[in-house]
């Protein structure tokens, strides 16, 4: 049984079909790349999986159970988490406070609960921001703000992590370091889907790549196959190129 099964997913915004009959299966322990030019529907797929958007058609199963109509907090409680493209820390709380918020179950009673300092330190250390715990988010450099977003997702203890453009705005050294950390998450038992515009940071990281264009899957295969795929190259011609 696949860990994640997206079957015939369609999402329309009024007359715009953002995702059209898209299917994807992710096996436990895989790192799958989901690429496509600007506006091809990648973030919409993630938003549908996380129940941030209602689907227009199709179904989503996780660990064998149908999650299509779950609320977002139910999806998270079942072991799915997403790092969004945008960073949205609470600027009036420290890095530690921001991480702690994500360890709290969705209930008012939980205000007294949450992770211990040790656990929060461990989530931060897994992504290399353990020295920033007492900092305020607006004092952090860009890469650390992005790492905080990942630490928040780690704090929900996901089995499957969806990463939306995790390398955006990072320099080459930061990209290399983050790719190594993502590899370590896999060694620790996590499964991941990584969205990116192009193959840049993904080539050595992912097991296979799925390509979206105008909401439709146009190719799937190994990174090498995708880099050479003619339909993919054509889809990217108008844009920035696949590499
Ligand atoms: N909430 C929304 N309301 C209306 N249209 C939307 C909404 N979200 C996305 N869209 C549209 O759906 C299409 C797919 O957008 P989406 O953000 O999923 O693409 P993407 O591949 O993630 O793009 P990018 O790489 O630029 O982030 C686009 O045409 C976008 O304008």
UniProtKB/TrEMBL annotation:
Keywords: ATP-binding, Nucleotide-binding, Transport. GO terms for molecular function: ATP binding; ATP hydrolysis activity. Residues 4-239 form the ABC transporter domain. InterPro entries: AAA+_ATPase, ABC_AA/LPS_Transport, ABC_transporter-like_ATP-bd, BCA_ABC_TP_C, P-loop_NTPase. Gene3D superfamilies: P-loop containing nucleotide triphosphate hydrolases. The keyword Transport applies. Pfam families: ABC_tran (PF00005), BCA_ABC_TP_C (PF12399). SMART domains: AAA (SM00382). GO terms for cellular component: plasma membrane. This is ABC transporter ATP-binding protein. It comes from Natrinema zhouii.
């Amino acid at each position: 049984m696949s860990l994640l099964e997206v079957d015939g997913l369609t999402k329309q915004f009024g007359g715009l079909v953002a995702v059209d009959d898209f299917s994807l299966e992710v096996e436990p322990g895989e790192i799958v790349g989901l690429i496509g030019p600007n506006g091809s529907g990648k973030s919409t797929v993630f938003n549908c999986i996380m129940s941030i958007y209602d689907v227009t058609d199709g179904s989503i199963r996780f660990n064998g159970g149908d999650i299509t109509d779950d609320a977002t907090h139910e999806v998270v409680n079942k072991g799915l988490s997403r790092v969004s493209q945008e960073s949205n820390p609470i600027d009036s709380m420290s890095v530690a406070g921001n991480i702690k918020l994500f360890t709290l179950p969705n209930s008012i009673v939980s205000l007294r609960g949450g992770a211990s300092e040790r656990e929060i330190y461990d989530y931060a250390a897994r992504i290399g921001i353990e020295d920033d715990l007492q900092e305020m988010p607006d004092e952090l450099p860009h890469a650390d703000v992005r790492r905080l977003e990942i630490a928040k997702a780690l704090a929900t203890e996901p089995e499957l992590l969806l990463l939306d453009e995790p390398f955006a705005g990072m320099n080459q050294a930061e990209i290399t370091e983050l790719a190594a950390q993502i590899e370590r998450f896999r060694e620790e038992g996590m499964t991941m889907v990584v969205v990116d515009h192009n193959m840049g940071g993904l080539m050595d990281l992912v097991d296979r790549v799925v390509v979206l264009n105008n909401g439709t899957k146009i190719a799937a295969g190994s990174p090498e196959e995708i880099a050479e795929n003619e339909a993919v190259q054509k889809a990217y011609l108008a844009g920035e190129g696949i590499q």
